[in-house]
Amino acid sequence: xxxxxxxxxxxxxxxxxxxxxxxxxxxxxxxxxxxxxxxxxxxxxxxxxxxxxxxxxxxxxxxxxxxxxxxxxxxxxxxxxxxxxxxxxxxxxxxxxxxxxxxxxxxxxxxxxxxxxxxxxxxxxxxxxxxxxxxxxxxxxxxxxxxxxxxxxxxxxxxxxxxxxxxxxxxxxxxxxxxxxxxxxxxxxxxxxxxxxxxxxxxxxxxxxxxxxxxxxxxxxxxxxxxxxxxxxxxxxxxxxxxxxxxxxxxxxxxxxxxxxxxxxxxxxxxxxxxxxxxxxxxxxxxxxxxxxxxxxxxxxxxxxxxxxxxxxxxxxxxxxxxxxxxxxxx
Length: 331
Ligand code: SF4
Prior knowledge:
alpha/beta, Rossmann fold, four-stranded antiparallel β-sheet, disordered C terminus
């Protein structure tokens, strides 16, 4: 792990115990660098939320990490005892979830919730300082500080989400995980909040993991992006390279499924649906939907290949050696 990397995930697998048992994440590897926005994209049910739950140590009781490790801020994160994880929460890692209405406590004012988080982690702070900080945080996310005494139901959807972002930043964490933070909002509010996240991130220097199914959104804000399909990370690369020449057929399909913010183009969907995670298909998990499928794809699991010096990685037989592709031919 270099100085540049804040988080390194190596071969992470997560299973939910049933019956049936479901391996929702299979051997995921990637890193998040200091001060970058790292996007995580894929269709619903591809494992994004499970991966985030593992990263934030918030897996439900029937879920467990079965393989791999996570290094975070120099610590072997999965081995830290729960008391230490609690101490790191908000201070080093915080979460903005999809629905602020469900995440904010409905019977405590927004300000009290921010103050509680500050005082719990920084007990040396006076109450007055904590309330001043709560007002300043709301101002920072462009919510009128008078709302420090408002309850969640008194705020609009956009204001609630901004208040969640203010809470997430209250203790200046190194990493803010944003799980579909703008999905429930209309496009105008969504654009304002995205712009604000980018501005705050540039000012304060924290890293962001931004989870969404919306590729066009990630291509406008993320520095690097990982693509998940059926529990696996199938491609990781810079926004520029993914925008210019996405390598994996699934990534190309995702990009073509969303309207571009850069150009006028017709939308093309990906035929079919993601497979059941109870019995994922053999070989490449995408082979039943892939327009570039090779014979070998039905049975042989593709290995990850590094495509350039910047570390662009893809898991697809199209990037095996020329000999391998020549031997098997296209369907
Ligand atoms: Fe398509 Fe084969 Fe690549 Fe899978 S490995 S994405 S099926 S070409």
